[in-house]
Design goal:
This protein is 84% helix and 0% strand. The longest helix has 30 residues. InterPro entries: Uncharacterised_YqhV. Keywords: Membrane, Transmembrane, Transmembrane helix. This is DUF2619 domain-containing protein.
């Protein structure tokens, strides 16, 4: 039996695959450049990708669950994601 993939799950997985591909390409670029200062610049660029992918996949997942979650549970999830971003972005 062949079961079709859920579109929401496929979208979330695709974003994660894209993110992983970007990480691998960045690592290869760092190796190719072979300079600490340039590798640090490439690494800093990755700092923008990670939070975006987290936010995008979480948003897609929440949209997919919106009809199954109560308002209270949805609020707790949003509070949790906010705490993650505060922890990431706080200096």
């Amino acid at each position: 039996m062949c079961q079709l993939l859920n579109k929401i799950v496929l979208s979330m997985a695709s974003l994660r695959l894209m993110s992983g591909t970007i990480e691998i390409i960045a690592a290869l670029i760092m190796l190719r450049l072979n300079q600490i200062d340039k590798a640090l610049i490439v690494n800093s660029g990755l700092a923008l990708v990670g939070p975006f992918v987290l936010l995008a996949t979480t948003t897609i997942g929440l949209v997919g669950l919106a009809d199954k979650l109560s308002f209270g549970k949805l609020l707790w999830v949003l509070i949790g994601v906010s705490c993650i971003f505060i922890g990431i972005l706080k200096k």
